[in-house]
Amino acid sequence: MPVLPVRLFGDPVLRTPTDPVTSFDDRLERAVTDLMDTVRHEDGAGLAAPQIGLSIRVFVYSCGGREGHLVNPEWEPIGDDRTHVNEGCLSIPGVSEPTERFARVRARGRDLRGRPVSFEADGILARAVQHETDHLDGILFLQRLAPEQRRSAMAQIRSSSWFGSAGISAGVVHDQLSETTGAR
User: Fold this and answer.
1) Residue 57, SS3?
2) Residue 178 has pLDDT above 70, yes or no
3) pLDDT tens, 56-86?
4) Which run of H or E residues covers position 83?
5) Residue 23, SS3?
6) Smaller CB count within 10 Å for the chain: N or C?
7) DSSP assignment of 162-174, as one string?
8) Nearest to 46 by CA among 154, 121, 143
9) pTM here?
10) Is the pLDDT reported for residue 174 higher than 50?
11) pLDDT value at position 133?
12) Which candidate, 139, 161, 143, places its Cα nearest to that of 59?
């Protein structure tokens, strides 16, 4: 399957809440495969559908010694412990800032066949579940930063070579992607 271009900060699809998946079909399987191929190629911890231009509630993860996907994910914290660790994003290359997240989470959703999936996670996988679910809600990790950190991150973004370039959508029109995958 193809490795797809990752949408970059500034692309509206990254700030738009996604639609729940209602059809567990070949198009969903192709989207999950494309997401997994792309996250492996980019050596990321996780990747959400909007990051490849799809407005559907699905993400993949490849971290903490585990790989998989969640369709229509939900999560809840396990306890009140939090971590404050550097976090980055494939859609915001070169920017990494300490971001507060819950230390442990319980995640649940569906697999690509519609079967229920649930697991507990800590460490980087707990962080990935929270980060990728944020993407599905149109939230970037920058929004989780303290104002001073956010200003610093935005300065890094504005001075980056990729910001404001045609690479924001990597030459792929969202409507074209939607037609081929059945996403809205």
Assistant:
1) coil
2) no
3) 999 999 998 999 999 999 999 999 999 999 9
4) strand 82-88
5) coil
6) C
7) STTSGGGTTT--H
8) 121
9) 0.88
10) no
11) 98
12) 139
Question: How much is the pLDDT for 1?
Answer: 58
Please report where in the chains the tokens 């939090």 appear, as a residue: 82
Give the pLDDT confidence score for residue 2 in this predicted structure: 83
* Residue whose token pair is 């939900």: 74
Burial 44-63 (b: 16+ CB within 10 A, else e): bbbbbbbbbbbbbbbbbbbb
Strands 96-102 and 58-63: unpaired
| Mean of the per-residue pLDDT values of the chain | 90
What are the tokens at 113?
Answer: 């066949």
Residue 172 identity (one-letter amino acid): V
Residue 25: pLDDT band (50, 70, 90) is very high
Catalytic residues: 132
* Residues 116/108, Cβ–Cβ less than 8 Å: yes
Q: Is 114 left (phi over 0), alpha (psi -120 to 50) or beta?
A: left
Task: Give which of 88, 70, 82 is closest to 122, Cα–Cα.
Answer: 82
Q: How far is CA 103 from CA 53, 107, 126, in A?
A: 29, 13, 7
Amino acid identity, residue 68? G
